[in-house]
Amino acid sequence: MSKIELPIDSGTWDPMEEDMVSLDFIEFYSEEEPYRDRSVVGKKIICLIEYATNKFLPLIIVYSKHQFLHFTSSTTGGVTASFGMLGDIIIAEPNAYIAFAGKRVIEQTLNKTVPEGSQAAEYLFQKGFIRSNHTT
């Protein structure tokens, strides 16, 4: 079962904006990954939020490494910072790694040791940040 199928009723998945693609207005070039091949996830999320708001619908966003709130492992960096911390109800998969920055980055920046396990869903659940760390 995919992460999309977990929180929804069978047969109700109706994708939106499937034909949306990145446009390269500034002719950005990278040998590693051409701009036109990059994801448009941010714009799709904005469209989804606007749609849900206009229709007065609840919105669940499922995160993963590339994509109430449901955290999967790992949810880090910009995903956590930009909208991952803003949910009214936040749930997470057991043992999900959830952090604004990785342990090494925090330790190097603050010159302090990050306690072992402090970026795991169970720790964040104990501290009240996550409502539930159980999957359905």
Shape: globular
Q: Sketch the topology as an H/E string, one letter per element.
A: HEEHEEHH
Q: What structural category arises from helix and sheet content?
A: alpha/beta
Radius of gyration (CA) equals: 17 Å
Biggest β-sheet description: 2 strands, parallel
Mind telling me which CATH architecture of the largest domain this is? Alpha-Beta Complex
CATH topology of the largest domain, anyone? 2-enoyl-CoA Hydratase, Chain A, domain 1
Instruction: Please bin the fraction of helical residues.
Output: 25-40%
Oligomer: single chain
CATH superfamily of the largest domain: 2-enoyl-CoA Hydratase, Chain A, domain 1
**What is the class of the largest domain in the CATH system?**
Alpha Beta
GO biological process, one term: malonyl-CoA biosynthetic process
Subunit structure: Acetyl-CoA carboxylase is a heterohexamer composed of biotin carboxyl carrier protein, biotin carboxylase and 2 subunits each of ACCase subunit alpha and ACCase plastid-coded subunit beta (accD).
Protein name: CoA carboxyltransferase N-terminal domain-containing protein
GO molecular function, one term: acetyl-CoA carboxylase activity
Keywords:
ClpP/crotonase-like_dom_sf, transferase, 136 residues, 26% helix, alpha/beta, 4 helices, 2 domains, Acetyl_CoA_COase_Trfase_b_su, COA_CT_N, 2-enoyl-CoA Hydratase, Chain A, domain 1, 7% strand, zinc ion binding
How would you describe this protein?
This protein has 136 residues and is α/β, with parallel strands linked by helices. It folds into two domains: 36 residues; 77 residues, 2-enoyl-CoA Hydratase, Chain A, domain 1 (Alpha-Beta Complex). It is 26% helix and 7% strand. The strands form two sheets. Strands 1-3 form a two-stranded parallel ribbon. The longest helix has 14 residues. The model has no long low-confidence stretch (mean pLDDT 75). Acetyl-CoA carboxylase is a heterohexamer composed of biotin carboxyl carrier protein, biotin carboxylase and 2 subunits each of ACCase subunit alpha and ACCase plastid-coded subunit beta (accD). One of its GO terms (molecular function) is transferase activity. InterPro entries: Acetyl_CoA_COase_Trfase_b_su, ClpP/crotonase-like_dom_sf, COA_CT_N.
